[in-house]
Amino acid sequence: MFQDPNVIYYIFAILVAALSFAFAVYLYFNVKKYPSTNERIAQVGKLIQQGARAFMKKEYRVLLRFCAVAAILILVFLPSPIWQRTSFSELATENLAMAIAYVFGAFLSAMAGKIGIKVATIANMKAAEAAKTGIKPAFMVGFRGGAVMGMAVVGSSLLGVALVFWLSGNASVLLGFSFGASSLALFAKAGGGIFTKTADISADLVGKVELGIPEDDPRNPAVIADNVGDNVGDVAGMGADLFDSNVASFTAALVIATTLAASVRAASEAIVFVYAGLGLLASIIGVATARIGKHGNPTRALNSSTYVTTGIFAVLTAIATFVFTSMPQYTLPNGGNWRIWGASVSGLLIGVIIGITTDYFTDDSKKPVHMVAKASKSGPAFTILSGMSYGFISTLPAMIGIAASALIAYKLCYPIGGSGEYAMFGISMAAVGMLSIVGMIISNDAYGPIVDNARGLAEMGNLGDEVLEITDELDSAGNTVKAVTKGFAIAAAGLTVISLLGAFMSEVNDAIVKGGLAIEKLTGFDIMNPTVFFGILIGAAIPAVFSAMLMLGVDRNAQRMVAEIHRQFKEIVGLKEGKAGVEPEYDKCIEIATDGALKELIPAGLVAILATLAVGFIGGVHAIGGFLLGNIVSGLLLAMFMSNSGGLWDNAKKYVESGHEGGKGSDTHKAAVVGDTVGDPFKDTAGPSLNTQITVVSLVSSLMSTLFLTLHIFN
Amino acid sequence: MFQDPNVIYYIFAILVAALSFAFAVYLYFNVKKYPSTNERIAQVGKLIQQGARAFMKKEYRVLLRFCAVAAILILVFLPSPIWQRTSFSELATENLAMAIAYVFGAFLSAMAGKIGIKVATIANMKAAEAAKTGIKPAFMVGFRGGAVMGMAVVGSSLLGVALVFWLSGNASVLLGFSFGASSLALFAKAGGGIFTKTADISADLVGKVELGIPEDDPRNPAVIADNVGDNVGDVAGMGADLFDSNVASFTAALVIATTLAASVRAASEAIVFVYAGLGLLASIIGVATARIGKHGNPTRALNSSTYVTTGIFAVLTAIATFVFTSMPQYTLPNGGNWRIWGASVSGLLIGVIIGITTDYFTDDSKKPVHMVAKASKSGPAFTILSGMSYGFISTLPAMIGIAASALIAYKLCYPIGGSGEYAMFGISMAAVGMLSIVGMIISNDAYGPIVDNARGLAEMGNLGDEVLEITDELDSAGNTVKAVTKGFAIAAAGLTVISLLGAFMSEVNDAIVKGGLAIEKLTGFDIMNPTVFFGILIGAAIPAVFSAMLMLGVDRNAQRMVAEIHRQFKEIVGLKEGKAGVEPEYDKCIEIATDGALKELIPAGLVAILATLAVGFIGGVHAIGGFLLGNIVSGLLLAMFMSNSGGLWDNAKKYVESGHEGGKGSDTHKAAVVGDTVGDPFKDTAGPSLNTQITVVSLVSSLMSTLFLTLHIFN
């Protein structure tokens, strides 16, 4: 393994990963050293910790079983069925390696989630108390708490990819690793999403709407579950999701790189690892230098550190490209190194632009939010109609952006050589570029639930209005930044799955060559081929069905929890009146959210996976090519629509609450609350889970390519 | 023109069209001879007639200007720019013929709409009064009134296609005719859809929700506008829509037929005309034999006549195929005639199955409606979430159905010969088959608004509860059947646009050959080509933007009308109290609906057309191929979702009103009403307009193919 000319680059990637772990540990202790004195906060914070831990434990137990079954299936069937294996060494290097890689991917993803939750449920308490001394320390605690997650996720994804690729020397095995990360993410995101929205909606429905008690009121039996939900949905789920996207983008680039001519293969692989490492390095610098400015504006602090990271990445990779071009063995023909740099940086820039455009549709100082608030004056139906409409419109700029960045990368890299493989490699590097700042993105994103929790803790700990004002401001910055990062995450997933489509084609052609099959190599998927078309139409319907199942899951689960809350208010004497010493049974609500989420998530995930298998065994690789395309297109469209409509409704409600169009308590407000409730599972359950659904389906297809190639009904 | 071996088939088609006109005239007089005695009904009926006429006049005036501009542009630019023409005869036979065909298509579509409105606004009064003598005569009046529209639409589409094709002998000119029909349909459907939902929502919002007065209460200033809306939206708009689909399916089949080998071209063209003629004949027989059975169940009567028509079509075309195979010059190789028959009949069968599946999701005796009603107990947010979820799920069977019928037709017809052209021809014949019973479908569909109006007239004419019960039953049958016919219409449009994609490719290749261009002929559109991919992503976003613009249009317009209704109730003394002799100013509301609809429809239509031009001039024919695919896939998905969710909410509301889950006036009912209001523009404005949007975009692409081929930035 040390003969590989690229050993130095693997080691570089591993070292950067190690640096990020070290930095995460530093941040962890930095957060931990903030004082905690308030007993009530400690007590409630502990409840949240326990709830989150209980959910994670149960969830991982379910997923363990799923992963075990999947690992055995991989061992037996992938990449080729075990009975076709002629020697043990073949078996060990392929089927066994893939099964082990799969388990390793799932394990790393789970670990990153666990670490994130652990830190987040400490940082929330620390941030609440830090707010007593001002916005600056509270911001730093929240941000650094989130950054631990960011560093853990990106570090472990880079470490995993480098190790698996180095040890196996086989990009196909990497697909197994990526699938492990992805299948865990699918369930973590969907399960966490169902949990968090079940609790959120139920708490609001009974608390705010029926009883008129404030958010985070400790009398509400669902209040702890709601805070737990922020952690398991937004911290662990989102972390798993971006872990998955990140790994998938590296995997796609490496799978495509292995199809390149032998003379440039090593150089191309080196570029992937260097860019990935430099992206993480840029994120580390971005996080380390993030400061809340003189004006104490947290939104500006979060955004500006994102821009700083983007700039650092562009500069660092430019330097790396300059160095590469001075070494003949790493110089690609036709100025290829700079072309790839261009593709990567333009991917990143477009990602940032998409994030900013998305922001327009959800920002409460912009027209869409104002129009939805205004429409709410005519009743909730108009809240829904106008919010959905703007959500639909918001898909256009993002779709144009994704399409443009793919086109630019392709056109830039096509002249490097090969018959289009470099063009596909360019697209995959645009995805790597877009995801390079993901460490920063996760830090920003995990900041949200931490300060949201801190707000709840400040309320329950009776820290007073001044502190609440600070936590409110921090919370609102979290929501604003979330819109940007979500648009970014979807765009990055979009570009990644496009390159996964390329990876799928590479895998199929690889299988044709290796199997000595009398089939022409694939050069593409023709829309006019009815088998492809068949796949497209069915692939397009899957995201709709998948998100519907998740939403129905939230719906059913919330009905159960509302019934439980009603029961408690009825049966526990003195609870409604807030009698001292009377406490609701928080754990019952946590249990309902947990059990319901685990019950509802498996069918949705299975539908996506089984539909892929059905289409593949019916129509073979052509149908799957179409299936992936249809899935990508409708998945991106729906994800964007749901995330943006949801964010828009959320902010329209807040806009009304801040005194516009009748203000809090008016009929307009009630209508806006309906919009927000519809938007909750849109933006936090179904929308973001679609990212993962698309990736899982793409990976399953690549993994099964040999089987789909040889076993199918039509062609 | 008489040397054409197929003259006899053109004449056959024209004769069947003439027969359908004669039958329409008979039905018209049959409806007219029913007595009308109630003065109040006559008076209100007249107001509806005047309102509808006023809208149609204004709308046609706007469209006249649009069509004039489009005709001039066609004359100058299409199929090739005027300055490239070398002789006057070339100009006359292509550009001029196409411009004339365009105007003719728009004119015929407008005429069919006008006739439909004229009859519907008579039949509504007659049906109301006929209900006094029982359900049978009322049903017959409603159904036959609708059938006039059905016969007019299908007759004139067949007549137009036969004449244009016969006279020009050029399938490309037919594209001009089809585009004329389509551009009119786009605006008629969208404009009518905005009008009808503006009036419907506003009337309900102020009448039912705010004041608690019943539907169709004459004190409501919007009540006449609401009834006018049923006619202009559901009768004229829907007629234009299906006129368009029908013409487009013939056009696609004939364009593809002209690409076939000379030896089989005439036979294939003959088959198109014979199948089209027999489809209309089957519809005539179906309509003529429709009777409401002993049990007086109108739903069963409507459905069974649809099945009868389906059966007759299958038998008639089988006989025709038998005859064709006895004539050597009309016998296709490899049992081709029977293969085409199979494709066509399977298309029709699958269309019916899709209709029935759709019905499951909207039928009030099935689970989805019950679940949405139950979810409404937790508030309107859950009505929306559950309704949307089932709407999403409902797309899957329809997508599978469309995909399967395309695949079956392709596989059946591929062996006939050629290099895939026959397979595409098979798909286009599946679309022709699916649309063969469209005469029956339109009759059923136009029946709905007529009996809906009749219900309103019976209420306003004080005909008593017994009569209202009958009209209610007729109305409810209309709603049930509507769900089936809508699913059918969307599926048919889907299959049609797939064949239009084939037609587009034929046109491009034709342009390459004719222009002597040094470009390889297209064999398909490769997903992995980033230009195609670019087109796909943007094409997929357009239906979302288009439907959002229409919904926002309804939203804005309804806000204006609600303000006007409030003004009238405030300023007109005695109106709210129902003082004798005090009447609201109905015409003001009609004016608002009319002006608003016309103002809102143009931008949405232009966005679709301009986006096509932009993509075509940026990426050329490859980008357009992708654009069409993306547009078809997301258009079908959204159309299906919106229509079905809308129908589901409508029926869930009615289910609650019939006494379930709390019944009328309960909070559950209020939540269900919110769902219904959201569903209104979903199912009657945006959803069905998407059909037409897809067709228009496909036709624009085919028409512009030469220009896109030669003028573009990327490739």
Task: Please tell me the overall pLDDT of chain A.
Answer: 89
Span of the ends, CA to CA of chain A: 41 Å
**Per the principal axes of the C-alpha atoms, what is the gross shape of chain A?**
globular
Query: Secondary-structure element sequence of chain A?
Result: HHHHHHHHHHHHHHHHHH
Chain pair with largest interface: A-B, 81 and 81 residues
- Give the structural class of chain A: mainly alpha
> For the report, how would you describe the main beta sheet of chain A?
none
Strand content of chain A: under 5%
Number of strands of chain A: 0
Question: How would you characterize this protein structure?
Answer:
Two copies of one chain form a homodimer. By secondary structure, chain A is mostly helical. The first copy, chain A, has one domain (7-710). Chain A has 18 helices and no strands. The longest helix of chain A is centred in the C-terminal third of the chain and has 72 residues, at 586-657. The radius of gyration of chain A is 25 Å and the shape is globular. Chains A and B meet through α5, α11, α12, α14 and α15 of A and α5, α11, α12, α14 and α15 of B.
